[in-house]
Amino acid sequence: MKKLTVLFIFFFLGCVKTEIEPNEKLPINFIGDSLTAGVADYTYPGQLIKILPNRTIYNIGIGGQNAEQIAARQGGLGIYIKLHNNSFSNLSEIPIDSLVSTVGGVSKSNYFLSTAAFNGEVSIDGSINGVKCTITRRTFNELVPPFTEFYYIKPKNATNAKIPPFSQFIPDQGFKQDSCVSVIWMGRNNDLSTIASRKNVFDIIKNSIDFNKAKKFIVLGMLKHSKSYIGTTNYANDQQMDILLKNMYPNNYIDISPPTDQEMDDIGYVPSIQDKLDITNGVIPLGMRSDGLHLNRIGNSIIANRVYKKLKELNY
User: Fold this and answer.
1) Regarding beta strands 2-4 and 57-59, do their DSSP bridges make them parallel or antiparallel, or are they unpaired?
2) How far is 111 from 249, CA to CA, in rounded Å?
3) What is the DSSP code (8-state) at residue 13?
4) Thinking of the domain 2-69+178-314, which architecture would CATH place it in?
5) How far is it, in rounded angstroms, from Cα 112 to Cα 309?
6) Is 0.85 surpassed by the pTM of this model?
7) What is the overall mean pLDDT for the chain?
8) At what angle do helices 195-210 and 67-74 cross, to 10 degrees?
9) What integer is the mean pLDDT of 245-270?
10) Is 27 in contact with 11 (CB distance < 8 Å)?
């Protein structure tokens, strides 16, 4: 879990309105992949904290992850683990033989800390059969993916407890934050080309929403690739995914459509000729992206403003 603080410095076009909120407002937990984790400080949660400097904000995005991995880290999707030899051994680190989740009624491997985005070590605290522990993902530090990965589990306190095969691991970060306002943006790294695959992603997002005890959430639609413009198959697939989310959560859904003239005026952005063409084609313009998919600080400020408005609308 990564907690953002006001010590970060963010740069904006135009003026930024700072909102002073009462202390009883719930923290906001941002759940997702690289669109949430961002690049450097160019994250939409980071942009939002500029508007709400007194609000506690968590960012548990990990780049390159699919909905199954994200939801398992958050707690909305169960993750079941088989330890080597099915037991702990004092304070030793134990290899994990298998990690599994059930999606669409089918059990499948879910290496929920894995990512092609970086080769560094990733750890998550939690418990299994009542034993407090840490799961760690390590690689051989290869420079390019796919990375050779190893998963280990280590108890917080010495124990020789037997752990039945495929016992559920309960992540701490999910249960520490299940009473926050959840802002969920996932599915971009999943296959959305069939009705069944979109339904699987929808069900995973629903699980993550249902996991939220506060029943306060916002769900973001699909960010279309710069080349997935109106008329392409990918655009149509993304639209179908958006329809599922919007129909289920009409009051809590944010469409990731191109910016309006008013939204660009609000941040002092003057669109180029190419930007205007992209907007006509139904995609967020290249001037607001760091590459064909990811947003830069300008694009993220647009998303942050939409989230802020939705928070106000829902009185979160």
Assistant:
1) antiparallel
2) 29
3) S
4) 3-Layer(aba) Sandwich (3.40)
5) 32
6) yes
7) 90
8) 10
9) 97
10) no
